[in-house]
Structures are given as C-alpha cells and as structure tokens.
Amino acid sequence: MPDYGHSIEFGVFLPPAADRFGDTLRLAQAADVLGLEFVSIQDHPYNSTFLDTWTSLSVIAAATSNVRVFPNVANLPLRPPAMLARAAASLDVITGGRVELGLGAGAFWDAIAAMDGPRRTPAESVEALEEAIDVIRTLWTPGRGIRLQGKHYELNGARPGPFPAHDIGIWLGAYKPRMLKLTGRKADGWLPSASYATPDQLPEMNAIIDEAAQESGRSPKDIRRLYNIGGEFSAEQLAELALTHGISGFILVVDGDDDLRRFAEETAPAVREIVQEERNPKAGGRLGVFPTPDNGIRFSQERLWDESKRPTGPERDPDAVYTATGRAHGQQLIDVHDHLRHELDKVRDLVQQVADGTLGVGAARSEINTMTMRQNNWTMGAYCESYCRLITIHHSLEDRSLYPQLRRGDERLGPVLDRLTEEHHVIHDVLERVDATLVAMVAEPKKIVDLQDAVDVLTDTLLSHLSYEERELVEPMARIPYHY
Predict the structure, then answer these.
(1) Cys-Cys link to 470, which of 20, 137, 291, 453 (CB 3.0-4.6 A)?
(2) H/E element, 28
(3) Domain boundaries, the chain
(4) How far apart are CA 10 and CA 35, in angstroms?
(5) Which architecture, in CATH terms, is 307-479?
C-alpha cells in the first residue's frame, strides 16, 4: 500500500484502572511534556474496576496543554451518539481543539446488556455505527432543528451545537470487511490494534478501505491510519509501516515511565527522521535538521494566497557539504519559529479568554486576575502589540540580511525568496488588521468576534508561511556561508 503522506504522530494508550488514576494522570502529563501528540484511554463502561472514560479524559485534558485526547475507542452501544456528539464537542471547545473521537461498534454484548444496553448482531452493530456517525456529524453542523429517522437512532427536531473548536476526527476501530468498508465511506480515520490486525494483515484491510473510499467519491488519503501497538516494535519497523502501509499515527500501550520516555525521546524522533528522509531527501537526512511540517489545519475560510503556486528551491545535492555552523543556523531558524508558534498559541488563548469573559490568562499573569474587563482588554492589547512587533522584527531581519546572502549563495533560490518576501507583506497586513480590530474592540466589546476572525487568519497565514520557509531554507542555510 502507498504512503499517504500524512505527518507522523505518536501517542499513548493509558491504563483506565480506578485504583491507578494517579499513575495514569502522571503518564498523561509526561506525554504532554515530552512532545507526544495523543493521549487515549479505552472505553469499557461495564467494567466496574475502570473509571469512566470521558470523565478521565476531561481531567487529563485540564491537566495538559498540548496533547489531543480521545477514547480508544468509545463504546457506542452504551453512549448514545447525540450525547456523545455534545460531550466531544464540549470538551473540544473547552480544550481549544484537542479532542478526537474513536468509535467502536460494540463487543461483549452480555456485559452491555447487563447495563441496559442493546444486544445487537454484527450486522446491526455496523448499521447502528453508520447511523451514529450521521447523528454526530449533523449535530456538529450549524443548522435548524434536525430530523433523522434511522433503525437504531433518531433525531426529532434536535438543534445542533455546541460546535467543535476544530474538525474532530471520527476514527473507527474496525477489522471485519463490513466495518472496513464503513471506514472508507464515512470515517476520518482507521484505528486498529496490532494484536487484532497484525502487520501482515494491513495490506488486505487497507485495500478494502481504499476501495470503499474511492467508490464513495473519496480519496484513500482522506482516511488517516493509526495503529495501537505494544513495545515490541522498533523504529525501523514503525517507519516501514508508515512508508509501506500508510500508518501515520502510532499509539503505544504504556504502563510505566521508562516505556513512555523511551518512546517519546528515542523511537518517535528516529521514526520521523527515517520517514522524512525517505519522503523528501532535501528536507533533512544527514543534514540532521528537520523542518516543521504544515499540519494542514486551518481555522478560517479566508485564503490570502494560493499555496499550490509556491515555488520550490533546487533539488538537494547528495554530495552537498554542510557545516556545523550552517546546521546550527538552520536549527536556530526553526527554534525562532517555534517561539513564534508558542507565542501565537498564547495570543489565541488570551483572545479566547477575553471572549469567554474570564480574567485569568495563566499563571504568568495571575496578578491581573482581579482586574476589570477593560483592564484585561488593555493587557491583551499590550501583549498582542508586543507579539506583532516581534514577528515584524523577525521578518525584517530575514528580508534585509538572511535572504540577500542566500540569494548570492545560490541564485536558484530567487523565486522562493521572492515569494517569502511577498508573504511577509501579506502577514504584515494581517498584523495591521489584528491591531485595528483590537483597538475597535476596546471601544466596542462586541467587536471581539472580529478580533477572533483576524487572529484565525493570522494563525493560518503565519503557520503556513513558517513551515514553507523552513522546508525551503533550512537545507541551503546549512551549505551557504552567511552571517547575521
């Protein structure tokens, strides 16, 4: 099977035992600090020794800052889809878009029936799951009262909402052909476990998903492939799964700190390096510096440029010589960009808190918790102004120093550097828009909506630009001598 080209992400599958939640929470926080993308918990509501999954995920989400959380996978027969839609959307809003939704058709029917759940045949369970996906997605879509008549689930005038902060992925734990076909038709992702779908079975299962996707007018690339794994896989094996079977998310079952730390600090970086080198030799390889890929997430419908028309630089020369100083400069560019990304997250969070009517903006600003809303607006204004100035200074340094030296060192970079400079001007205009809407909002609080829209456009343009710049310039910076 092909490599579908998705970014490679990593996460953990944590124990749900009621008497070990302290360990579970600590491991989740460690995953967050160590840079993993996902934290998940299995969902077996009929097991009296397990804590409720949604309650546990909510506590974990509150105690972390970056990881996305999801049930691995939610037991649909005991979780009515309308309520599941509300719960997932609510947590996504609260966390600022850090929730995904793993769904399962159900198993252990005696235990489900013992909790007053339905007892379904295999065919019925797939039918119910398909109806549930429709219910969930409909309730996440703005509109009027909804009426859906299904064999297993109905909506009789229910109003949609709340609406998720981002497009929540619906990932199915699927193994049999009927479920795999449903995954291809309607799901955003496939989430099998290696213990039930071994690597040698993946090609046949992937083929069923891909065929169903194409028959439904979808691209096989539309379905992410995630894989629950144990600790027996090496980095090389995981990279092969990514490159030959399209697996782009690896969720490790962990039970202790050592396994988690080894996975985050050793396995994950090694897998990314192997995959990145195979996909695009000019992006890293022996260069040892790795650009940040664009995750494709967009918050606004507004597009200020056509990304498909961005020029690319010369192909990487396998005999190119890279200096230690050049590598350091490339990494420094990434580090500066990472700082801008981090600061952008703060701006978004601050704007959201003002929109929500809260005063607290984090521990670093705890001293303003007792201020009035007007004072909080002023504080936000000062912070946004400082951030916008930081971006402008960074871009000015690139335009006046870095870009001319790279252009002299390799004239083939000219079209890329011209495009990057054009994007700097676009981003400058977006920053001016943020500033204008901020000033207007201080005088008229209802303008917070305009400010949120402007920050969404800033987020989309800036993050896209930073990834493009790293992709095209990190390698030349390592081989072309220059000075700040």
Answers:
(1) 291
(2) helix 21-33
(3) 9-279, 307-479
(4) 9
(5) Up-down Bundle (1.20)
Tell me how far apart the alpha carbons of residues 105 and 132 are, in angstroms, rounded to a whole number: 10
- 173 touches 103 (CB < 8 A): yes
User: 306 CB contacts (<8 Å, ≥6 apart)?
Assistant: none
pLDDT for the residue 137: 97
Q: Is the dihedral of CA 27, 273, 414, 399 positive or negative?
A: positive
Strands (E), 88-186: 101-104, 146-149, 154-158, 170-172
CATH-assigned architecture of domain 9-279? Alpha-Beta Barrel (3.20)
Please give the model's pTM, rounded to 2 decimal places. 0.62
> How far apart, in whole angstroms, are the C-alpha atoms of residue 138 and residue 161?
9
- How do residues 364-378 score in pLDDT, each as one tens digit? 233 223 322 223 444
Phi and psi for 2 in degrees, rounded to 5?
-80, 165
Provide the mean pLDDT of the chain: 87
Do residues 451 and 418 make contact, with C-beta atoms less than 8 angstroms apart? Answer: no
Which residue type occupies 325? T
Q: Are 477 and 406 in contact (CB under 8 A)?
A: yes
Six token digits for residue 54: 């949604």
DSSP state for residue 165 in the 8-state scheme: S
- Cα distances from 122 to residues 112, 210, 266, 307, 347, in angstroms, run 14, 22, 41, 45, 48
